[in-house]
Amino acid sequence: MSRPRRTPTPLLRFLGAAGTVTGSRFLLETPHARVLVDCGLFQGLKQLRLRNWEPFPVDPKTIDAVVLTHAHVDHCGYLPALARAGFKGPIWATPGTRALCGIVLPDSGHLQEEDANYANRHGYSKHRPAKPLYTEQDAVRVLRQFRALGFGERTEVAKQVQATFSPAGHILGAASALLELGGTRVLVSGDLGRASHPILCPPAPPPETDFVLIESTYGDRRHEEAPLEDHFAEALVRTAERGGCAVVPSFAVDRTEVVLHVLRRLRAAGRIPPMPVYVDSPMALEALRVYRRAIEEHAPDVRLEFHGDGDPFDPGDLTEARSVEESKEISLERGPAVIISASGMATGGRVLHHLARCLPDPRNSVLLVGFQVEGTRGRALADGAPAVKMLGRYVPVRAEVVNLPNFSAHADQQELVDWLAASPRPPQMTFTVHGEVAAAAALRDAITARLRWPVATPRDLEVVRLD
Ligand code: ZN
Q1: The whole model's pTM is what?
Q2: Greatest CA separation found in the chain?
């Protein structure tokens, strides 16, 4: 008589965002399917960025499906490379994430091509000719593999694996993903937003689950209680009084919308003087269009509504710079003015030209409204560097640099633990991921202290059995 076969235990592999804040990739394996949750690029320090060039740790041809939490590059930016290496399956994402990936991924491909061209012109690549990690065309091609999955809709994403998204309140379309593998439930928080987000609904409480992966970007920090616009308004008033320009390096998606909306509120309340506002980023302007449409269509994760009182993203004197000529004209602006431009961590893009011009003059300011990853120029500015290298030369920092972590699209330690505490029952194991080493460890300790749940901080490439 044969013994009943035990169902083999599902496995979880941490292929990124373990001990670091970028490169989110979590692989779930059952006897029937391999499902990858998120497929991000590594960003920041060079040794991390080099990881993007290593072969993917498992053969992409053997992955059946990708479940995508949101459209930030550190969560979706490796998808074109995965597809180029043979991944042919569906990529499940909310409609908002899919729309934003349609902007973010081709732009990322374009940047990869520019980097390769630059390396070829200046002859510093080991490979001759230097090749891009992927091209804009690769990125456009991978968009065809996207399948829309709305919030709360449970579907089979691969054989005997079901997925359900719930709103994470981080950027438009951002979700936490619940994966059901036979009798085992795994919840990946994705990036969790803050209840104070002026455009998006707060994160939904977690569903019942056996295992949780929770992000820990701000796992060691506490955001101030003060409303997010207070320090922002004060910094703008100081800059205006000096007659300077405020440069806001801004992530093209979401931060630009929040900054514009807050500027509008501050202007309406008379808390800042009238001054021209420039958005100098074609990608940010594309994302703005997606946000406007989501508001018009009452997307389920959006709480802002049009009330017939004008564009919620126009603070009054808005100039949208799309062409290079329009961008160059901004350099004639002496101030007071606000210049919003990407990239958000000053790793590239048009914001470098504005920073190179504005940093040496103490009348100006730089307002940092997002998390600045280790190894980026934005982090150097946040840490008080006296000079930063950009466009081939060192630029002295005499402008006022203002850190505004309250603007962050990420929950702080207390908000993260509050979110977990709203679970219907304690999970069997909680993993803190997507944080620098100290942040992931601090969140782990906070969860132990407050909830007394079993919690671990996984190592990079660690494999765990889910039983
Ligand atoms: Zn994110």
Answers
A1: 0.91
A2: 87
